[in-house]
């Protein structure tokens, strides 16, 4: 799979398959194409050629059902992108009502369940500005889960958070992983990668330079570029 922005070749010969229940952590320097890869996975960007399959969904071809893909793929961003003028409950229930056709009461019951799951059951009726960054990100995760996705994509979900809030968000993600959610996570949190990933992918300049189980990757990275990166971040 390749991705160009005009003449800029951003993703180069990427072959990626994500299996059910797998947790893939993507790491690499800034500008290496990690966000673009995630955006291609839920078709926020088009791709040219090649193999990109997530579960049973081929994401490359023109025939891909983009609406279905987006419904089945939840995405959580660095900046939480909550609707500021809507309550937490509204933020979580809007899409299930509008896109999935759930009734309001059905969607609200599910939303309250999800808020309990991410540890903030008491925040249903407040506005995003009344929440800490970590709480806002947990609402964003609950909002993603409300669509009952088959896979969740996370793009540096803790990079905009104060250090003391990072753990609470990673904790929710770890819990999701343990429950069997299929996940692709771009992060600089190497502890999370080591502990939770089934597979670590290291990207540099638009290529997958190295991939493997976390023990092998962190223990004996083979690529020079990966060694250098790890020496800087660990
Ligand atoms: P990362 O997430 O690893 O930091 P990105 O996927 O954001 O990397 O970016 C990869 C490359 O693609 C960078 O050179 C970036 O400038 C470029 N790029 C990203 N989005 C666009 C866009 N919409 N138009 C043009 N170039 C882009
Ligand atoms: Mg990025």
Q: Which ligands accompany this protein?
A: adenosine-5'-diphosphate, magnesium ion
How many helical stretches?
9
| Structural class based on helices, strands and sheet pairing | alpha/beta
Helix amount: 25-40%
Strand order of the largest sheet: 7-8-9-4-10-11
Number of strands: 11
Mean pLDDT: 93
Low-confidence stretches: none
Shape: globular
Walk me through the topology.
Layout: E1 3-5, E2 8-11, E3 16-18, E4 23-27, H1 34-41, E5 52-54, E6 57-58, H2 66-72, E7 73-76, H3 88-98, H4 104-117, H5 133-145, E8 151-155, H6 163-178, E9 182-186, H7 190-196, E10 199-204, E11 207-212, H8 214-219, H9 224-233
Parallel strand pairs: 3-5, 4-9, 4-10, 7-8, 8-9
Antiparallel strand pairs: 1-2, 5-6, 10-11
Helix pairs in contact: 3-4, 3-5, 4-5, 5-6
The chain binds adenosine-5'-diphosphate and magnesium ion.
The site of adenosine-5'-diphosphate (ADP) has 11 residues, from strand 2 and helix 1.
Structure at a glance:
The chain is of the alpha/beta class and 234 residues long.
Walkthrough of the structure:
The protein has 234 residues and is of the alpha/beta class. 39% of the residues lie in helices and 20% in strands. The chain has 9 helices and 11 strands. Helix 6 (163-178) links the parallel strand 8 (151-155) and strand 9. It is globular and about 50 Å long. The model has no long low-confidence stretch (mean pLDDT 93). Bound molecules: adenosine-5'-diphosphate and magnesium ion. Residues 34-35 line the site of magnesium ion.
């Amino acid at each position: 799979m390749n991705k160009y922005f005009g003449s800029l070749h951003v993703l180069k010969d990427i072959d990626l398959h994500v299996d059910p229940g797998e947790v893939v952590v993507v790491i690499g320097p800034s500008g290496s194409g990690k966000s673009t890869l995630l955006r291609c996975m839920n078709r926020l960007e088009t791709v040219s050629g090649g193999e990109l399959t997530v579960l049973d969904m081929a994401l490359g071809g023109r025939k891909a059902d983009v609406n279905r893909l987006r419904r089945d793929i939840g995405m959580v961003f660095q900046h939480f992108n909550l609707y500021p003028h809507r309550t937490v409950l509204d933020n979580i229930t809007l899409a299930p009502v509008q896109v999935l056709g759930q009734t309001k009461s059905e969607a609200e019951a599910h939303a309250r369940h999800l808020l309990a799951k991410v540890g903030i059951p008491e925040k249903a009726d407040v506005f995003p500005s009344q929440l800490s960054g970590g709480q806002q990100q947990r609402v964003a995760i609950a909002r993603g889960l409300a669509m009952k996705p088959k896979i969740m994509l996370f793009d540096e979900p803790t990079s905009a958070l104060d250090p003391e809030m990072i753990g609470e968000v990673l904790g929710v993600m770890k819990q999701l992983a343990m429950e069997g959610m299929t996940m692709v996570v771009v992060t600089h949190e190497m502890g999370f990668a080591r502990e939770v990933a089934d597979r670590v992918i290291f990207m540099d300049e638009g290529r997958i330079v190295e991939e493997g189980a976390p023990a092998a990757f962190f223990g004996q990275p083979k690529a020079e570029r990966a060694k250098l990166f790890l020496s800087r971040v660990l």
